[in-house]
Amino acid sequence: MIEVQGLKKSIHNGTNLVEILRGIDLTIPQGQFAAIMGPSGSGKSTLLGLLAGLDAPTEGEVILDGTPISHLNEDELAEIRGRKLGFVFQSYQLIPMLTALENVLLPFELNGSSHRTGEGRARATELLDSVGLADRLHHYPVQLSGGEQQRVALARAFMLEPPIVLADEPTGNLDSHNGEHVLELLLRRHRESRTTLVMVTHDPQVSERAERRIILHDGLVIKDTATATPMAVTEANCDS
Ligand SMILES: Nc1ncnc2c1ncn2[C@@H]1O[C@H](COP(=O)(O)OP(=O)(O)O)[C@@H](O)[C@H]1O
Ligand SMILES: [Mg+2]
Description:
The protein has 240 residues and is an alpha/beta fold. The protein has helices at residues 44-51, 74-84, 100-113, 117-130, 146-158, 176-193, 204-207, and strands at 2-13, 16-28, 33-37, 59-64, 67-68, 85-88, 164-168, 196-200, 212-217, 220-224. Strands 6-7-8-3-9-10 form a 6-stranded mixed sheet, sandwiched between helices. It has a 4-stranded antiparallel sheet with strand order 2-1-4-5. α5 (146-158) packs parallel to α6. The longest helix is centred in the C-terminal third of the chain and has 18 residues, at 176-193. Residues 234-240 have low confidence and may be disordered. Adenosine-5'-diphosphate (ADP) binds next to β1, β2 and α1.
């Protein structure tokens, strides 16, 4: 389960204080598929980065399965990320000098399992096969299409069998055919392994398939289908 309490993020931008997130409260139960939507600049990527502990909040807390993450050090964060989270980016973020297989193996090796290389390679190979890339194991990212690169990124995100998958516009750079393929793979993972799936998307056809739609605007949740009614405006979120 993901709990978000009073989450705020501000950034000093020269002279101005930019308030990116202005007080977010959410509870996402284990196994839910939640879509995060909202206009460009509303804070979706910032929120996802905070959920993953890739960035620190200015105020508030993210609690992953009971563990508040804001005061963890880098090693503790890396450990909890490795155990709980898979992250998929719009721009794939593969390591260019590594083959598809090596990219998928990376979380396994960073997780201190490099002594079990045989086991890791077998699992990475199986995952690449499951995303339709059995014949691309030794290709480098530059030799792969966008759709193929994103499927390598999915295999990498699934490598440590995370209970939570966070995806930031995973189909945003893909044509509709490849986008559909990537979406199907994420949804299959969600169904078969009961992973929590939190996905930022602009695509209404994607969000319609989610169990829940969370709409951000200007750093606040303005609608959340889990609560049915628009969020009440409280003192905490109207004081800017
Ligand atoms: N490091 C940063 N420095 C200054 N402004 C930022 C930074 N990161 C994000 N922002 C601003 O915060 C707002 C929200 O960004 P983001 O979370 O990327 O929005 P979204 O993903 O919804 O498009 C945007 O206006 C963006 O320009
Ligand atoms: Mg974004």
